[in-house]
Design goal:
The two termini are 32 Å apart. The protein is an alpha/beta fold. Strand 6 and strand 7 form a beta hairpin. Helix content is 35%, strand content 22%. It is globular and about 55 Å long. Helix 6 packs across helix 7 and helix 6 crosses helix 8.
């Protein structure tokens, strides 16, 4: 069963949306903007996060909250926008999708399912695919052209994190925090070493998955 977290100033105003989601088989919980992002994400496994935004986005302080939310998590985020908010976005929205008021439950379900389909296999397993590479999250297994790739735990976690966030560039410092943890005291060259090992195990003459962004860091290439 998929779980939805709704972050809103007044969740009661969105009660109809929550009722519709629960009637469609979702479990739901609510939170406020005052709560710490990390706490929200560790409290329960989330499948999608809904963020209500009222007023002009850059001026409301919600922009920083959404940015931190995306930094702390790979869970898809859908913004719930008041119609008048669209004029103030100017292409700056970092969420995976958005819905404008008045909110329609059926439209929200379609948008949520579209996001799920990017990482869910047809048999319900969570799969991340890029050309011949398939990352089976449930089995912690990576295959290329149906052949299992022998990865260490940290190599697998690094590859999975980058693959979930295709196209997004991460510095070495951020990757250390995300994959190794904030209490890791090793140097950031550890990331370079693991990237080299991943490339030697996953890439060949006709495929490359991890790109170096000069003077910045690394990213998993977007699908063609």
């Amino acid at each position: 069963m998929s779980h939805v977290l709704m972050i809103a100033e007044e969740s009661q105003a969105l009660g109809g949306l929550l009722d519709g989601l629960m009637q469609s088989g979702f479990t739901c919980s609510t939170a406020s903007y005052d709560e710490e992002v990390t706490e929200l994400l560790t409290r329960q496994q989330q499948d999608v996060i809904l963020v209500e935004i009222n007023g002009n986005l850059p001026d409301s302080g919600r922009w920083d909250f959404i940015h931190r939310l995306k930094e702390e998590s790979t869970v898809p985020v859908i913004a719930l926008l008041a119609a008048q908010t669209l004029e103030g976005i100017n292409g700056q929205l970092e969420t995976d999708d958005f819905l404008t008021s008045p909110y329609d439950v059926k439209e929200l379900l379609l948008r949520a399912k579209r996001l799920f389909s990017k990482t869910k296999g047809v048999d319900g397993r969570e799969l991340i695919k890029c050309d011949e590479m398939v990352i089976d999250v449930g089995r912690c297994e990576v295959t290329i052209e149906d052949k299992v790739v022998d990865l260490t735990f940290r190599e697998y976690e690094l590859l999975k994190f980058l693959a979930v966030n295709k196209g997004r560039v991460y510095t070495r410092e951020v990757l250390l925090n995300k994959v190794w943890g904030y209490d890791y005291y090793g140097g950031d060259r550890t990331v370079d070493t693991h990237i080299r090992r991943l490339r030697s195990k996953t890439e060949g003459p006709h495929n490359d998955f991890i790109e170096t962004v000069r003077n910045v860091g690394y990213r998993f290439r977007k699908d063609n």
